[in-house]
Amino acid sequence: MDANATQPLHPAARAAMVRVFEEGALNASAQHAEGRRARAIVEEARATLARLLDCDAREIVFTASGSEADNMAVKGAETRAHIVSPLEHPAVARAAAATGRPVMTVAVDENGVIDLSALETVLKEAPKPAQVCLMLASHETGAIQPVRETAELAHAHGAIVHCDAVQAAGRVPVSFRSLGVDTLAISAHKFGGPQGTGALIVREGLTIAPLVHGGGQEWRRRAGTENVAGIAGMAAALDAAVAEMAEKAARLNRLRAILEAGLKEMAPGVRIFSEGAERAPGVTLFAMPGLDADMARIALDLEGFAVSRGAACASGKVEPSAALVAMGVPEGLARNALRVSLGEWNTEEEVRGLLTALKKLFAQARSVAEAAA
Q1: What pTM was estimated for this model as a whole?
Q2: Structural domains of the chain ordered from first start
Q3: Would you name the residues annotated as active-site residues?
């Protein structure tokens, strides 16, 4: 139940990759028949992704991960400052900090959705030109952000916008043109493609300095021999994910409704974060009063349920989620957040089994608290 971390390889992606492997070792930059076959595979995949993501094929730069795509967009931007939401993945937030340029943050509301009026204030104060970084779907709460409105506001102030769509692509509709952003990152393994494969869309006419130097691949924007099999698998996976999106979303949202109703029944004081916002299908971040998240995660793991912490660990110390703190969540509660992110493989029986396991843990936590009192 940790689909936000990674997803199994989709059969369509596996088949596409096997076809490439059967061709043998191919280098898409080689100037011979084998190289031309590899180039054709890469460009066919690029065209597929362009169709699915509503961009021009020449705007796509293949990378080795979503993190690399985020780093390229942030570090390579010709800007004087970064405006970063507190929701961003470390691949964006830490990349911005590493540039040495000023990094400014913008407020979010109690549902973890960016405050556009606060953004306008920051845009007026920021050194120009600035870059606004806003993800499309939160990796923690699943909250969908008003990226299109953010882009319109940013452009009105001469800023560019980077969108981390890693948790959105393949799960919710993603149109580069409709969002109106300048760069957008995706990662294959989040929608059933292979790990170690990603892409950055760069708006035509925008200059992004290369992060990786070397050969002239990707129109001199990203050096390194293309991962032909990974690229083919990524395109096949996204094609399948988009085709299956509506059906999967309906099913995952039904399972989430069962989960959240069960949580509220067993623990009336449960906090379900971003519940009032539109969320990516199947994602629930919650905290139950008195239930330690670390102990619960370990106990659930022993019971056969894979869930994740809603907070990151740094230097052995559990730090509260920056996103939750920005939402006004008390630090103690933020430290006890657990994330369940369901995939199409999960069943109603498994969700009810998780609720049974949580009920047992919650009862034990209450007994300990009562004994201590």
Answers
A1: 0.95
A2: 11-240 (3.40.640.10), 245-372 (3.90.1150.10)
A3: 313
